[in-house]
Design a protein that fits this description.
The structure is a homodimer.
Chain A: E1 5-11, H1 39-46, E2 57-61, H2 65-72, E3 78-82, H3 87-97, E4 104-109, E5 113-114, H4 117-132, E6 136-142, E7 152-160, E8 163-170, H5 175-184, E9 187-197, H6 198-208, H7 210-221, E10 224-226, E11 229-231, H8 234-238, H9 245-250, E12 256-261, E13 265-266, H10 271-277, E14 286-288, E15 291-294, E16 300-303, E17 307-311, E18 316-321, E19 324-329, H11 340-343
Parallel strand pairs in A: 1-2, 1-4, 2-3, 3-11, 6-12, 14-16, 15-17, 16-18
Antiparallel strand pairs in A: 4-9, 5-13, 6-9, 7-8, 7-9, 8-12, 10-11, 18-19
């Protein structure tokens, strides 16, 4: 048991940046954005190699349970249902409290795409070794562009076998700093993937954010289990301070390490990225759904029903979903999350 | 009676160039493209001045009767129902056969917009004078641009009071010829508006296309009337040769005259033109329906329901209608009629 890795798949999201396809009620993890499988399905598949992994633990919100159930019907997973969203420090603590202290956890967001599963598993194994030695391991994504939407990790001294001490975490930088990081070469993106044992995570959380550690422990103690589902007490969990693992633990602990990994990672952060990740036809157009394109180049069309007819456009994304139609330049795609439609959604939290 | 003018409003269309808003089942005349009234409603209103006009006669297809009825519920109109579409020579003959021989008819398409009603009525009165003298009068629209989609009329000798003999009709020219026409200044667009007495029209039709004249007369003789509706015999009308009034009569008769008129005419031939005719906001955007526009300039949005969110576009028309979404550059708008969606419509003929 202690030799294998327990995947903890975090599954939720606000559904704004890939709106209107992604909605609060059906956010990014549950969409087949690249290929036919959803990102959540891909995360499950990626951690299904039983020579490396135990069965997965899924941490998700009440509102997403139907989606999770429909994708895990035949899989041997346990599900932790969050009565409310209290950010990643609490979500990961829920999982840690349900595992033996010496069990290595691999925390995996389910809203990104990883092209190279072998590189992912190799890195996970290396991270697990370090976790067993008492380290809290972040995985660094090679910073290939000066992205201002990600946090960065500055590598420190090498620890051997591709791992490094962490010199510092850097919050989302401005453009100039991001460009300097890429040029420097000593920085990786923080992709939100972590490895540690349940015990060390809880210990460090108790050290730096005892309020969160205590509140989650109380909610778990008063929680209830039903078959493969566990739900902490709703009222007690609602009282847990909301904080990210980065702020609460990783930026503070002296046990942090980083394993940089080049595995074709993408956060698929907007429709521009979706377009880039899908194969285009001879004119670079990408179509999902019914469409006719005339004199178009590098146009993305995604429709859940209506036919989309397009004439004369280039570098534009068109998304039709229910009663919403989005038309944006690829450059404008980063503003989608600010649209009234994306901001003022009703639906499950 | 013979002093006043009988408006004959032709009402149909194929519904392709302004697709998907305009459809075979609800073509251009029945859409509120400029202002709140439909083009058909505007055509009725334009000819409602009873110091100049009798009540109107509407010639329309079976499939459009509901639209016509809903717009004429309180108007004193008579309706001629075409069992099938046999082009304008036949449609106008139907109306002429239902009128006294000395009655001046003013043939009015209902798929264009006229901004200056007074100029229209003044021209109609001048045309009616000539009609009573036995002329077949076309109205010339000032050619303000080298349009290749219209027929042109070359003015001949002046006849006084703003009327001219017609030197020749020119079918849709290529770009070079159209530019030469505009530069020459002696050419007008043929807007499909005509004035003549019923008797002279039928006489000239019988002279140049006796086959059409005879076939329509037979269909009318075997037709049936019901309140304000008249329907020619369907089988006999289907046998009428299909030809335009231009080819069948106007280009051949020696009685033709032209009254050029500057009345703010537009055929609203594509979405680019619709955009031009609607007032824009400070950024030149025109929105009908629910929409949010960010960083957009001169964008037209028309939606029959779904919200349309647009980022970063300029000079683009977006039309949402039922199960069809159209996104086109203004330059591409002229290709809309060739789209599969526009071409392969099912619906009333």
């Amino acid at each position: 048991m202690s030799e294998s890795i327990s995947p903890v798949i975090l599954c939720g999201g606000s559904g704004t940046r890939l709106w209107p396809r992604s909605r609060i009620a059906k956010p990014k993890p549950f969409l087949p954005l690249v290929g036919n499988e959803t990102l959540f399905g891909q995360a499950l598949a990626r951690t299904s190699d039983d020579t490396a992994f135990t069965s997965a633990m899924v941490v998700t919100g009440k509102g997403h349970l139907d989606h999770v159930d429909s994708e895990t019907r035949e899989a041997d997973v346990s599900i932790i249902v969050e009565p409310s969203a209290r950010n990643t420090a609490a979500a990961i603590a829920l999982a840690a409290l349900r595992l033996p202290a010496d069990q290595v956890m691999l925390v995996c967001p389910s809203d990104h795409h990883i092209a190279d599963t072998k590189a992912f598993i190799d890195a996970a194994r290396r991270g697990a070794e370090l976790a067993r030695e008492g380290r809290l391991v972040a995985f660094g994504i090679r910073a290939t562009a000066p992205e201002t939407g990600f946090g960065y990790i500055k590598r420190g001294d090498p620890m051997g076998d591709g791992a490094y001490e962490i010199e510092s975490f850097v919050e989302k930088p401005d453009r100039d700093r991001a460009e300097a990081f890429v040029e420097d070469g000593g920085y990786d993106w923080n992709g939100g993937i972590f490895a540690f044992t349940a015990g060390y995570y809880l210990k460090e959380l108790a050290t730096y954010r005892p309020d969160i550690a205590d509140a989650v422990a109380k909610a778990v103690a008063a929680g209830h289990e039903n078959q493969n589902r566990f739900e902490p007490d709703a009222e007690l969990f609602a009282a847990v301070p909301s904080e990210s693992i980065d702020y609460a633990v990783m930026e503070k602990t002296r046990l942090a390490a980083v394993v940089p990994v080049d595995m074709g990672w993408s956060d698929i952060g907007n429709w521009h990225v979706v377009r880039e990740m899908r194969p285009g036809d001879a004119d670079g157009n990408r179509v999902m759904g019914r469409a006719e394109l005339v004199d178009c180049r590098n146009v993305l069309v995604e429709s859940d029903g209506p036919r989309v007819s397009v004439i004369g456009l280039e570098d534009v994304c068109i998304v039709v979903d229910g009663d919403e139609v989005l038309v944006t330049t690829v450059d404008g795609a980063q503003k989608v999350g600010k649209l009234a439609g994306a901001q003022n959604q009703s639906g499950a939290a």
